[in-house]
Amino acid sequence: MVYGACMALVLLVEDDHAVRRAMTEALRDAGYVVQPVGTAVDALGTVTKDQVDLVVLDLGLPDFDGYETLRMLRGVDKDVPVIIATARTDEPTIVKLLNEGADDYITKPFSSDVLTARVGAVLRRAKAAEPDTEQPIEVGGLVVDRARREARPGHVLLDLSRRLFDLLAYLAERSPNVVTKAELRSELWGDSAQHVDQTIDVHVSWLRRKLGETAANPRYIHTVRGVGFKLIDPCSASSSA
User: Fold this and answer.
1) What are the CA-CA distances from residue 178 to residues 69, 161, 224 (Å)?
2) In whole angstroms, what is the distance from residue 203 CA to residue 197 CA?
3) What is the pTM of this model?
4) Domain 9-128, CATH 3.40.50.2300 — does that match?
5) Which residue ranges does the chain devote to CATH 1.10.10.10?
């Protein structure tokens, strides 16, 4: 993937013609290549045949429910960053979106500046998460391989979204030290606002499920109240949070 603003291909999925045109103009003015479509079917077709760098997805599409569209997109490309554009602000909706694989969301109505800033931030995070040549990290039998973007507790390969893998790798690289929520907001989410903490909590909860643990019975990921999280060896003498 190429992430320079003038090169990145943004797939814009919005059924309202006037809104789609305004968003397209704003993104093109910011230097992005934009492919605007109005249906989920067209969006899936584009992701299948083109190398899309980011998707901006409206939930209110005429052919498929937004959640179903997100799941289908993830089935085609589990790593492409997806920003949800929605007028819904209730917590259950946001949590469900993040659990389904959204990387970020933007609440309607929003300005052109906010849209282009969010797109730029998510693309920068995606670039920072590109595979490198570092050696795999091992913490108590959990192997995190950034070059292959694979994580294995024992011999089990975890099925992780791009964001969940990035979160796990970030914690593993800093193990056994505590990683603050402020650091996660800045380094992984590119947003210093406090409201991002809810998003972080959702992702940590989902990552724990993948690892077969819970906040009440942690193995690898321990919460440090009022501070953040740390990933440690379950067999370590210091494994109590």
Assistant:
1) 36, 23, 7
2) 10
3) 0.60
4) yes
5) 137-231
Which residues are bridge partners to 151 per DSSP? Answer: 144
Question: Which of these, 81, 160, 69, lies nearest to 123 by C-alpha position?
Answer: 81
CA distance 125 to 99: 19
Q: Which two tokens stand for residue 40?
A: 């989920």
Per-residue pLDDT 10s for the chain (241 aa) are 333 444 789 999 999 999 999 999 999 999 999 999 999 999 999 998 888 999 999 988 999 988 889 888 888 877 889 999 988 878 888 888 887 888 888 888 899 999 999 999 888 877 766 655 568 999 999 999 988 889 999 888 999 888 899 899 999 999 999 999 998 988 888 766 677 888 899 999 999 999 999 988 999 999 998 899 999 999 873 444 4
What residues does CATH 3.40.50.2300 cover in the chain? 9-128
Q: How far apart are CA 207 and CA 163, in angstroms?
A: 10
Contact indicator for 176, 238 with CB cutoff of 8 Å: yes
Give the separation between CA 192 and CA 141, rounded to whole angstroms: 33
Question: In angstroms, how far is the first alpha carbon of the chain from the final one?
Answer: 39
- Chain CA centroid to CA 183, Å: 16
Q: How far apart are CA 149 and CA 127, in angstroms?
A: 14
User: What does each C-alpha distance from 157 to 86, 139, 143, 233 come to in angstroms?
Assistant: 33, 15, 10, 18
Q: Which CATH class is domain 137-231?
A: mainly alpha
